[in-house]
């Protein structure tokens, strides 16, 4: 583990990714202690103030402190998307290992269905589900987790097929081992690297998706401080008060870029080249 | 060969059927029905009865699915709850506008991205490649609404070259639409270019390392000829699939970008329909987007078949 981190940090892009991700995680955890103001408290005497000594990033249309809102703005997004990434990696990873090991008819038909799911524009599907089940983490986490899990399944299944053709798996099958021990003891340890990288990569795409949902008004609900929602709310005053939009944009983009760079660096350090392997 | 084409077509048909069933079932699974979820606390008495009658909800689900699917094939998507008009009438102009936006973005992005991908792949790890790859990473990871907001700030507010939001009516002519469409097309193309370029670059690098390229070099074939005759045609095949996949993104991205620029397309109509809980309209637009997507994927598959004789052999 220590060696892995050292390898990642040895390259500038990996170090940047690791730094940005850690920075945002620490910020999200410590937000209540860092923020000088309550992110939801409105102040009618301090509406749309430009950045100054008290309000480092200015104030928004309702007189709320932008700095405090930016510091808090990642908490919901990170919590929701991280949970969804865990769901996606777990179910997609397990199903991928299973189908890649079992093979045959079961595998073939399941992959047809997986391909059909991959051929749906999933954001539209998410919007359909939200219009039925209402916005909120309880709808968004399972839906994001499910759809991104299908892509994880596809990638892991491809890798699992290659592993299952190797001698030690054949040997385990010949020894008469049951399916479960083969999946957990022979297959999983050889695929955990791919799962880790896939999970991290999906996490960054989910953040992008969740913030887009928030921007459209279907993710975080007011008055929750959330980057996507903040951009949507303050966008109308872009010409007079750009600070209300600028800082959430910077925070959100830097987190997504950070996770993306980190996932790339982890993949390279573990000897997986994502550039040519996974298209989905 | 004809059987392969037939298989691709039947998979496309299967996918569309599957998607339509999942969409229909998702709405069926909701507590209550389309009318109660639309009318909310007004869902009682004659109002509810009228709505149920208009939507034909008294019939069994299977019959309704059959009707809905058969109607959709003929371009009839039923009635919108909020607008009280046939959905086909509502979406006609919107569809044209979205097709214009997406079509222009794809037309601009695909050739440009392929060219950039070749340039970056051929000059792997040199300054040109590093800067192009870095820019692609940025374009892929930064959310579209952030890119769009930045462009609005620079080109609409500071320079005032283009309007920040679309102010023309949905039925406006092409020339009236043109200045409104520039910024949305740039935002959409940026992400498309990034995805396609990355894949093209990886694919070019792969082919450059192959034996037949080595052989051509050893024979003394000029580098320019190697790239255009050997590398590019072979690198195109895997890139085709990515082009089809990025169309999926394009369709989702269109919704966000249309919303940012208030562009009168299917995306803004869908978002409005979700706000209004107008489920028949949401369903119809989602289905249209899915059909477009599956159609594009089918085209890419057929193009790959045409380009790559190996795919035509048995076993694939």
Rg over C-alpha atoms of chain A, rounded to the nearest angstrom? 22 Å
Let me know the number of strands of chain A.
0
Strand content of chain B: under 5%
Give the fraction of residues assigned to helices of chain B: over 70%
Which blocks of ≥5 consecutive residues of chain B have pLDDT under 50? Answer: none
Shape of chain A: elongated
Average per-residue pLDDT of chain B, rounded, comes to 84
Q: Which percent bin holds the helix content of chain A? A: over 70%
The secondary-structure element order of chain A is HHHHHHHHHHHH
Q: Structural class given helices, strands, pairing of chain B? A: mainly alpha
If you had to describe this structure to a student in words, what would you say it looks like?
The complex is a heterodimer of chains A (280) and B (316). In chain A, α6 runs antiparallel to α7 and α9 packs antiparallel against α11. The longest helix of chain A is centred in the C-terminal third of the chain and has 38 residues. Chain A is mainly α. Chain A contains 12 helices and no strands. Chain A starts with a helix and ends with a helix. The C terminus of chain A is likely disordered. With 316 residues, chain B is mainly α. Chain B is built from 13 helices and no strands. Chain B is globular and about 85 Å long. The N and C termini of chain B lie close together (11 Å). The interface between A and B is large, with 45 and 61 residues.
């Amino acid at each position: 583990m220590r060696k892995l981190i050292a390898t990642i940090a040895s390259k500038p892009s990996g170090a940047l990714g690791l730094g940005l991700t850690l920075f945002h995680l620490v910020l999200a955890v410590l937000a209540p202690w860092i923020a000088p103001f309550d992110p939801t408290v409105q102040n009618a005497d301090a509406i749309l103030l430009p950045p100054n000594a008290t309000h480092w990033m200015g104030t928004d249309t309702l007189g709320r402190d932008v700095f405090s809102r930016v510091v808090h703005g990642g908490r919901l997004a990170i919590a929701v998307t991280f949970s969804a990434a865990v769901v996606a990696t777990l179910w997609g990873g397990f199903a991928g290992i299973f189908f890649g090991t079992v093979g045959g008819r079961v595998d073939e038909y399941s992959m047809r269905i997986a391909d059909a799911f991959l051929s749906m524009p999933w954001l539209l599907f998410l919007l359909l589900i939200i219009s039925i089940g209402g916005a909120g983490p309880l709808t968004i986490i399972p839906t994001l987790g499910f759809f991104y899990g299908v892509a994880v399944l596809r990638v892991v299944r491809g890798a699992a097929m290659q592993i299952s053709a190797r001698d030690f798996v054949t040997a385990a099958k010949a020894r008469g081992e049951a399916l479960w021990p083969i999946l957990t003891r022979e297959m999983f340890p050889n695929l955990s690297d791919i799962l880790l990288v896939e999970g991290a990569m999906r996490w960054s795409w989910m953040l992008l998706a969740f913030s887009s949902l928030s921007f459209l008004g279907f993710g975080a609900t007011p008055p929750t401080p959330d980057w996507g929602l903040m951009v949507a709310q303050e966008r109308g005053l872009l010409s007079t008060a750009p600070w209300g939009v600028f800082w959430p944009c910077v925070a959100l983009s830097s987190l997504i870029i950070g996770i993306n760079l980190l996932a790339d660096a982890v993949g390279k350090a573990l000897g997986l080249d994502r550039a040519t392997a996974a298209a989905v | 060969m004809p059987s392969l084409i037939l298989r691709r077509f039947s998979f496309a048909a299967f996918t569309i059927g599957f998607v339509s069933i999942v969409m229909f079932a998702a709405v069926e699974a909701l507590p209550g029905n389309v009318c109660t979820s639309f009318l909310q606390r007004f869902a009682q008495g004659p109002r509810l009865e009228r709505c149920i009658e208009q939507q034909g909800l008294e019939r069994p689900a299977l019959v309704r699915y059959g009707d809905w699917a058969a109607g959709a094939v003929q371009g009839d998507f039923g009635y919108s709850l909020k607008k009280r008009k046939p959905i086909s009438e509502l979406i006609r102009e919107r569809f044209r506008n979205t097709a214009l936006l997406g079509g222009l973005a794809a037309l601009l992005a695909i050739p440009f991205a392929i060219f950039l991908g070749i340039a970056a792949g051929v000059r792997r790890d040199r300054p040109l490649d590093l800067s192009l790859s870095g820019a692609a990473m940025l374009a892929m990871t930064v959310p579209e609404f952030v890119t769009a907001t930045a462009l609005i700030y620079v080109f609409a507010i500071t320079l005032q070259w283009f309007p920040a939001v679309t102010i023309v009516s949905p039925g406006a002519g092409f020339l009236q639409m043109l200045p409104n469409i520039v910024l949305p097309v740039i935002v959409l193309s940026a992400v498309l270019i990034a995805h396609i370029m990355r894949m093209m670059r990886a694919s070019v690098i792969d082919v450059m390392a192959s034996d037949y390229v080595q052989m051509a070099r050893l024979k003394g074939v000029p580098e320019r000829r190697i790239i255009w005759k050997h590398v590019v045609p072979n690198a195109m095949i895997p890139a085709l699939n990515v082009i089809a996949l990025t169309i999926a993104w394009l369709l989702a991205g269109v919704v966000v970008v249309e919303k940012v620029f208030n562009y009168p397309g299917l995306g803004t109509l869908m978002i409005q329909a979700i706000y209004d809980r107008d489920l028949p309209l949401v369903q119809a637009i989602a289905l249209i987007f899915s059909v477009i997507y599956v159609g594009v994927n089918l085209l890419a598959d057929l193009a790959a078949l045409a380009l790559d004789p190996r795919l035509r052999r048995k076993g694939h």
